[in-house]
User: Fold this.
Amino acid sequence: MTGKTFFLRALTPDRILLEEEVSMIVFRTIEGDMGILQGHEPCTVMLDSGVMRVKRDSGEEIYLVSGGFAMVDRNQVVVMSALAEHADRMEALLQDIEAQRLKRKKEGERWESEITRAEIAIRRVLLGQEISAYSILKGKGEEGESL
Assistant:
């Protein structure tokens, strides 16, 4: 990768979503959107539900994040969220959650509230203020411009 980069690690409780060099990241904090470049002042911020844009030399990818924290150092950013996924995968994730809910209900387990909370978090992100679920999945911004 050319230019100034830093290491991004994005984690959820059950997996590592990203571990790679990137040139820029933009995410939504509880105080507004925040862009990070290599050499950013160290800080820790609380994330709000929303879009996380990850820029590389090869282009930009969009991830959906449901709250959490980001720890920023000059050469590394660690994003920790209870729920985070690539935008293209959100529809499949919602289907997985529904299948889990039905399975748990049949088994008589009392996990439905946790599954419901996860589904609400995903839908909240998808129905967020900045872009619609359709535009995320089709790679278009709010006014139809390519992302």
About this structure: Strands lie at 6-12, 15-22, 24-29, 32-36, 43-47, 50-56, 59-65, 68-72, 76-80, 84-86. The two ends are 20 Å apart (CA to CA). Residues 29 and 47 are 4 Å apart (CA to CA).
